[in-house]
Amino acid sequence: MDDDRIADKLADALRARIGCTVDASPRRRVEYSSDASNYRVKPTMVVFPRGDDDVAETIRFARENGLPLTARGAGTSVAGNAIGPGIVLDFSRHMNTVQAVDVEARTATVQPGVVLSDLQRRLRPNGLRLGPDPSTQDRCTLGGMIGNNACGPHALAWGRTSDTVRELRILDGTGTYRTLGTDLTAVPGLASFTTRNLAVLRTELGRFDRQASGYNLEHLLPERGSSAAKAFVGSEGTCGLLTEATLTLTPTPAATVLTVLGYPDIATAADDIAAVTRCAPIAVEGIDAGLVDVVRAHRGTVPDLPKGRGWLFVETAGTSPAEAEALAHQLCRETNADDHRIVTDPVATAALWRIRADGAGLAGRTPDGNPAWPGWEDAAVPPENLGTYLREFADLTTEYNLTGLLYGHLGDGCIHVRLDFPITDAPQRFREFLVDATELVVRHGGSLSGEHGDGRARSELLTLMYSPAARAAFAGFKALFDPDNILNPGILVAPNPVDADLRVAGLKPVTGTGFALSTDNGDLSTAVHRCVGIAKCRADTRQAGGFMCPSYLATADEKDSTRARARVLQEVVRGELDWRAPAVEQSLDLCLSCKACASDCPAGVDMATYKSEALYRRYKNRPRPLDHYVLGQLPRWLAIAQRFPHLANAITARPYLRRAGMRLAGIDPRRDAPPLAPKPLRRNWTERNQQPKTVMLWIDSFTDAYDPENAQAATQLIEQLGYTVTIPKTRVCCGLTWISTGQLDGARTRLKATLDALTDHVAAGGQIVGLEPSCTATLKADLPELLPNDPRAHQVAAAVKTLAEFLTAHPDWHPPHRPNDTVIVQPHCHQHAVGGFEPDRKILTAMGVTIEELAGCCGLAGNFGMQKGHYDVSKAVAENALLPALRNAAPNTIFLADGFSCRTQAAHLANTKGVHLATYLRDRAVD
Known about the structure:
By secondary structure, the protein is α/β, with parallel strands linked by helices. It contains 44 helices and 24 strands.
């Protein structure tokens, strides 16, 4: 019996015993086969418990069937401790409630699936917070933080997760409930275990704050509080499954100030840590110049930094801004920095901290663009040894010809780095480096892990850090909780080899792609393995202006995250799944091709491109779904319908005919059909003036067929600046609808015709202004990727601008001042991903209007929301931002949206007419 049939049979047996979802489908098992680490282990099934009873029954079932159990929250572990071969329990889906907050006692009681940022938002009105704040706080769960003993920048002042834990309720490996606090007798044998191991606990554990490797058994000591709860923290799911935690909270500082200190290099900055920490900072973060250079290359610019090639970001706090600033000035006087910058403005502070946040994601690629991997990403040494350690670590990486970007929590000696390990073709060099790196950190009295845990990445190496007596104590501690070793086996105790189950080991390139994949050397395998699983696609980033990932925000199902889709495609390129497998179709079905991940994902995963490539391969030389021919080739049918717009509108106005036609075409019959304009733009086009300078207006199929007045408005705006406005002489198309349905050969045909129509204009120095954001983005980004060997493609792409880009670049143009206007603006996802929305934002700000800028997709997303089976998700996506904003809008509020899809969605679901920026600017100029 093969693995899939065995998994199905076991899952059926468990479903008969519990009421929650048990999923053993091939797709689901792939989605949960990796976390944010280098490792890949397919589980037998995934369980989504709704409460303690489901967890308890799952443990009983696992024991009866000899299945390992692995707990998982958001799956952001970089050490491989959230994956396992048996049953994976995902606590994030349902067990995610904040049970209670006691403001006076400063405690919160939570279920393990609560996301840290959700808890922090709940606490903020009370002036409280949880101290630890790892970089993944907008998606990591409290259960995962407790499992790994997470820290973050403010651990220097507010401690690690273990310092916040007051009481834990767990189910141990026998299925027995335990309440862990400061009573060691709650676990039979724990008190006598502690007595027997006093010498080891006092001499080898808890030597400095960031000693996170191994179990945190120092907390069992009487002088440390005899806390079984704190000792459990950092056990990485090997000793019990958490069902509830009571945590101690800390007051939020009244005022903080950021000081940036500049040094010649990061090692010299580390030498100054003692002087820095004497000034009582609450956070001390270090950043190397290499990381700043990568952020600058990716974002275009970074805020001004003090001179140097290594920086410390130091946060001081006080009961007033003056007190916090006084500490900052003291810091500058008493440290040895070459230069400094004290920042009190919150906006400037946020911009500087964003360097650190962006860099953490971009560290997944070296400055040369090579993939960089975790594995040695958070070693820690006592702070007084850090400068010397960093210099010797640099020598070691040079010896192994490895490159990485350094940053981390220098205040307490923890350094983060991802290195371009040759895991794919030389995994033995990966192991050799880890052994040498371990010996180096041990010589400096350090820890293999400073906060991420050991997992599969470092557990085997604990033999080089701890004595046999210490490791025997670890084994004895686990045996008290999990005598049959069913909880996350192979982690910490009796570990698996560090080079077993490596996800990319032995992978072969996948070339001959439809897209050039120029940033990945034409290799689809490298492209889809950009996803290392840090799971920003699971975070609700709308408050920060993010758009990724709309379907996950609507469904809260891992299946609909960018990460899960990448995992499925990774199985395809490794040969474990066929392009035509149901798992691939299911995984990509609810991807809106919004392209937001291309900009929002720190690793640069572009799922819209990968989906198009997958569809191209799936249907190459095969019949396609009917909607691919209808919606995927819509400009072709629009060109015919535009000859008889009144007849087309009369047909679609009849509900019976419209619904029947939509059903036949694979379109959801609940959708409306937007009316065609009585006269397309091309039919009425005349060039009204002749000026020395010429701008070509890109007339996309949607503007021409549905909203020609937008092109007329844009023409007037551009002509007022002294330009002649032209349009392509022939009907041409960017091929977007062909691209989104994977009809890449057809897209290339249309793009070649487009180049023929635009090249002379561009060669003469002319600019091209696009009005439909998705089509404009296609010309900018997809054109060079689909026609990489045609030099005209890059020239045309560089000449294309949005209307806002064109206007804001013109020194003689000034927008009308309209301070009484209130505008809800929906940036288009493709514009957000390709070029950004800043020029539009600049125009609206200069107009003085009151702006509510929406973050997130409208939900229609071109053909996605029209396709049969997508209507409900499309509507749910619209509920993320668009529909609530329109429902709550004040009278006379203007809905501004350049995207035809966005305006269509608003008209259909909210009966709200959207206005294009061109029309809005023209009309407001004459009001």
